[in-house]
Amino acid sequence: MGDELKCPKCSSEHVYSDGSLMICPECAHEWNPDTAAEATDGSVVKDANGNVLANGDSVTVIKDLKVKGSSLVVKGGTKVKNIRLVTDAVDGHDIACKIDGIGAMNLKSEFVKKA
């Protein structure tokens, strides 16, 4: 662990590795140091195919997703319109949206593709 490794969220120097991820014990932020340059921008969010997403885009869910704390499921192929990118993503959920029949929720960009 070198001096150059700091948490991109809180700038703590007390980070440790867990496999391929780095973890900050102070704010519980996890990140991949190989993609840290993209994550610190806050402006680069990519879908499952590597396409760059922007606010207002429409995306399609690529697999069935269980809604945490509920028996609802977001089916693969569901189209989500007018997404908002979240700069301070919680647990990797970097897309805020509203899905018909379910309501407001957050999604991970790795489970959507640009429509």
UniProtKB/TrEMBL annotation:
Residues 45-115 form the Protein YjdM C-terminal domain. Gene3D superfamilies: 2.20.25.10, SH3 Domains (2.30.30.40). Residues 6-32 form the Protein YjdM N-terminal domain. Belongs to the YjdM family. It comes from the Bacteria. This is Uncharacterized Zn-ribbon-containing protein involved in phosphonate metabolism.
